[in-house]
Amino acid sequence: HYSMPKEYIGKRVEIVYDADTLKIYHGLRLVTTHQRDDTLYAYTTKDVHRLPGRHGSYEKDLEQIYEWAAQTDNVLLLYLRKVAELKKYPPAAFRSCKGIMALEKTFGLERLGRQAHAPHNCSNTNIRK
């Protein structure tokens, strides 16, 4: 995943790459250049490519969600960390964790989290990706 300026979202672009760099073109115009990263599911972004209204990093925002979850229940915190790990792309991980915490706020999942500690409930727990 490589970022690009918001003006080009939804437009057809061409990607030219070699062993070290990746260049994104719109027509004959060079839009941006990134250092190549062959790590599976990795992402490379530039601060100038952030969407308007988006301030700070997703990692920082995830840490705040983790702190909120830790105050609620450690099981919830572990679950959110696993969700973020499986998503691998920070914006998607942030949205998923934020959604789960919105459910906690709306429905009081902290009570369900504490009940999950009981041994008789463990076999009935089904956590999916």
Specify the number of helices: 5
Give a quick account of the main beta sheet: strands, pairing sense, barrel closure. 3 strands, antiparallel
Q: What string, H for helix and E for strand, traces the elements in order?
A: EEEHHHHH
Globular, elongated, flat, extended or rod-shaped: what is the shape?
elongated
Overall structural domain count: 2
Q: What proportion of the residues form beta strands (DSSP E)?
A: 5-15%
Q: In order across it, which strands form the biggest sheet?
A: 1-2-3
Summarize model confidence as the mean pLDDT: 77
Low-confidence stretches: 112-125
How would you describe what is shown here?
With 129 residues, the protein is α+β, with helices and mostly antiparallel strands. The protein is built from 5 helices and 3 strands. It folds into 2 domains: 6-48, no CATH class; 58-122, no CATH class. The chain has helices at 58-72, 74-87, 90-107, 109-115, 119-122; strands spanning 14-17, 21-26, 29-35. The chain has a 3-stranded antiparallel beta sheet with strand order 1-2-3, with no helix packed on it.
Short description:
45% of the residues lie in helices and 13% in strands.
Top keywords for this entry?
alpha+beta; 129 residues; elongated; 3 strands; single chain; 45% helix
List the helices and strands and how they pair.
Elements: E1 14-17, E2 21-26, E3 29-35, H1 58-72, H2 74-87, H3 90-107, H4 109-115, H5 119-122
